[in-house]
Amino acid sequence: ETGVTQTPRHLVMGMTNKKSLKCEQHLGHNAMYWYKQSAKKPLELMFVYNFKEQTENNSVPSRFSPECPNSSHLFLHLHTLQPEDSALYLCASSSKGGSDIQYFGAGTRLSVL
Amino acid sequence: GESVGLHLPTLSVQEGDNSIINCAYSNSASDYFIWYKQESGKGPQFIIDIRSNMDKRQGQRVTVLLNKTVKHLSLQIAATQPGDSAVYFCAALDNYGQNFVFGPGTRLSVLP
Q: pLDDT digits over A101-112, tens only?
């Protein structure tokens, strides 16, 4: 148990659906991250939040919309996704932003049909 | 742009042997590096880190070596066990010291 919990673990959605991924960390950290992990590709940083403020948006399409209501919770709202968005979405947290060890959740395996 | 790469996408070793997983990075200004282990169905898990003012750091059964001259780091696992089977990633802190750039990973398989 890493202290970072992601739900759901698996999600199948159609291209017209709207769904949300949830991440919760119990580590008392101040920074949270969303990553996309596709087969045979490096982890791709999507969004970074520091003290609930978004500090990084790595040219992510607007069909992905993050929300960070407090330092312990992070959401990724999904709408009108494409099949190429199918991937493992990982949430991570760290004590402070960027230059600190990141602790990852188990991820949400997303399939877009 | 910055990149982090590994020399081998897969590595098979006999149980009990030592494993060496390599990683190359492009940014000479990177001053902090982390190795992660990702088992099937799980997220990446921190193994060991090293800062650029060191060239070697040891943990329990693991050693990380850093060669800044050639921008290369390696992870050595002693007496490899079946539980070490996983994908191993290196990550290097970017130019701005803000985010990590991850390598594509090496899948380590431990043979009985």
A: 999 999 999 999
